[in-house]
Amino acid sequence: MKQEEILALFRQFESIANEYEGIECWSARELSKLLGYSQWRNFENIIEKAKMACVNAGQEIAYHFADVSKMIMLAKGAQREVNDYMLTRYACYLIAQNGDSRKPEIAFAQNYFAVQTRRAELVQQRMLEYERVQARAKLAETEKVLSGVLYERGVDQKGFAIIRSKGDKALFNLDTAQLKRRLGAPGSRPVADFLPTISIKAKDFAAEMTSVNVQQKNLHGQVGIEREHVDNNAAVRQMLLQRGIVPEQLPPGEDVKKVERRLKAEEKKIIMKNRS
Question: pTM, whole model, 2 decimals?
Answer without folding.
Answer: 0.65
